[in-house]
Every structure is written in C-alpha cells, then in structure tokens.
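haha ok so turns out i had the wrong file open the whole time. this is the CORRECT one, sorry everyone. sequence first:
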Amino acid sequence: MSDSPITLYRLQACPYCERVARTLNELDLSYRSRYVEPMHSERDIVKRIAGVRTVPVIVDDTTGVTMAESENIVDYLETAYGNGDRLDTTTADTGGAN
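then structure:
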C-alpha cells in the first residue's frame, strides 16, 4: 500500500519492530514496511529521517509525527488512533464489584 500514511522502518525479526507492527495491526491501521540495512552504521535512510540509526521508526504523514523507540511509538499509536488505553487493558470494567 504505497499510499498508506504511516511508514514503519524496521528490521527483519526485530522484536521491537514486531511490537510496533502488532500494534498497528491491532488498531487496524494501514501502513507500509520499509526494511532497513542490518548493519547499524549503514542505516543512512533512518538517520536522515529520524536523526537516529535505531529501529523501529515510524513516520505518520497524517499527523506529521516522526518517532523512534518502540514503547514511545506504541503509546503514540494507542493515544492517536486507539482510545488512549493499552490494548491489553484490564481496567475496562470499573463497576466496583469484585
């Protein structure tokens, strides 16, 4: 999907990248994956985009956000596109009964 507003820069089999991809899928967000060079020193595209050579990095054209660090990305996605709660929330029912 080349016209997806979200691009995920990632590595193959990277658990942090997979965490972000899983969140994107759970939120039913369209995105495209761009796989980057495995060698940290050769990740020039990520460095140009986000100022870092680490992955994952997302670029969200809808909101103008470019972000690194999987935990920050997941929090951002859940806030911007979810209901602001963790997807695995256990606090949905706060009826007070035990």
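The longest strand covers residues 6-10.
again sry for the mixup
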